[in-house]
Amino acid sequence: MGYGGYMTLLNGSPYDWTLSSQHAYQMDSWNWPTVAAGTAAKVYVEYGTKGHTSDDAGEAYYKISSTSNTFSIQAKKPSDYHLYIALDGMSTKTNPKGSVIDQGFRHDASVNWILSTDEAGQFWSNGGTTVDWMQQSLGSLGNRTLKQICMPGSHDAGMSSYNPGTVGANFANTQAQYLDFYQQLMMGSRYFDLRPVLSNGQWVSGHYSEIEGVWLGGNGQSIADIIKQVNQFTSQYRELIIINLSHTLDTDNDYKDLTQAQWNSLFSTLRGLNFRMENANPGNTDFSNKVLNEFIQDKASVFILAQLPGGIALGDYANQGFFNQDNLPMYDSYSETNNRGKMEDDQIKKLKDNRNLVSDAGARKDKFHIFSWTLTQQAEDVLNLDKAIMNLGVSVYDDLFSKAYNAFTPESFPNVIYVDALGIRDKPVLFPYDKPAKVASSAEIAALAMAVNNGKAGRNGYITGR
């Protein structure tokens, strides 16, 4: 057998990608399909075993129907087995005409070519980095409500490091993110699950679970460090950042819920975040009904949402850039399984059942939707370092760009693509398991969100007004 892997062709444009021609030399598998508008095709590629692999090569030529735009896929350097996209007859937001984009190659895994078209006809791709993707997309997204926009999100966002915690906890069963807060922002994440806890009198990120009456977990980034990193990002980019506060605990006092005074202390600390979205007397206003231009037209905006338990109130902090769960109602239901197929089918079904963005108000289902593409460790996984949270996260990475994207429709797509190990596609926890390995990062998930906004939501007349 040869050396094989996949390329996913994600067509987020309103035009079919028509295969014009293809040919190969000594490739065991090189068979490319036409890709319909708004769909993704995962294609297997295998270098040959006959003769010398230095001679292996292949080309596939595509025309974007109803336009003059063309591109090609090339396998031309078998010594590194990389696949390339050549923009023979087109340009994108980040790549001039004639660019050759190295997509790399992943043995038995996928590389992705993501190309979408916004309302102005501009092509966007993952062939470059667009850090401020929201700001640059305001022409299409500015008049859409938050309910009508898709963005990447970080589960347990503060757990990008591990500080030893309880007995039985380790980095494999506690650390959920490889990249720190600033790096997650740079990779395109805009929704952050932040779980502040008090530990040794300090506010830090925590990841704790109670199992049969015993608490298990540890700490990640400090809240002070997170504030510094968010402020660094908002000083550079005018993006919307949603920070959702939940799972708060006093780990210094038997893991009790926070008191009102402790919540006030947390709010006071978080006032260090610049560009908080302040709204006098927000009451029960649903901010998911507000359009993106109301948040970031001329500045960054940090929307701090607190999931408050009974008996706890925002008080005057409601006038200082803090909101409660009534201000951003959401559908958030994770699958609680370590089984890849069960999680994926469950999340896709929940999306289908709970999202229907149509003009008929009686049939409309548009609650802000968290698409939890996460696997949950079970009891048998907790001490299995190979099944680290981050490893489970990357095990379902490729399916986002094929299975999940194909399940999305113009009327039913998520608001948050919510993942562990955001920006990471290869296992970072490897033998000898002393610490995460060095792995490359990728902003592809931002390109995926843009493809949802362009190729799915952008084809919904109720959303676009067309």
UniProtKB/TrEMBL annotation:
<dbReference type="InterPro" id="IPR051057">
    <property type="entry name" value="PI-PLC_domain"/>
</dbReference>
<dbReference type="GO" id="GO:0006629">
    <property type="term" value="P:lipid metabolic process"/>
</dbReference>
<protein>
    <submittedName>
        <fullName>PLC-like phosphodiesterase</fullName>
    </submittedName>
</protein>
<dbReference type="GO" id="GO:0008081">
    <property type="term" value="F:phosphoric diester hydrolase activity"/>
</dbReference>
<dbReference type="InterPro" id="IPR017946">
    <property type="entry name" value="PLC-like_Pdiesterase_TIM-brl"/>
</dbReference>
